[in-house]
Amino acid sequence: MKKLSLLLLLTILSNCSSTPSINSCFRNTIAPITVFLNNPQLNGLLTPNGTAAISGGINGIVLFNKGTGGSFSPYIAIDRQCPNKDCTTPMTINSPVLECSCDGSKYSMLNGSLIKGTNNCEGGARIYTVTQNGSSLQISN
Hints:
By secondary structure, this protein is mainly β. Helix content is 10%, strand content 30%.
């Protein structure tokens, strides 16, 4: 009975995952990127609804301050590649919205979901995991 309980517990734990949902059109992985909030390039992140664009991902990454705070990091990282992949230019940042200039689709910077237009993929914009440690942010898959 103990072996069965242990096997059941291990099965449950192995099925738990902290991996974020990935848009079906984006199978990219990135090497972890570390940025520092005291970098002048990231000054826009210091206020709620603030943004900062950095290199990385498929077509650049936009960091967005959701303003949530508390025990959760208020930051989200979104790839600027249009989810329909019909555009070679990065999505335009109009906080709190990202817009694909080729098809006019709009995506929420709060969670990457489609706001307006069409999306040929399961999911919205590509979201990366952001982990805050003091004044540094680590962006990863």
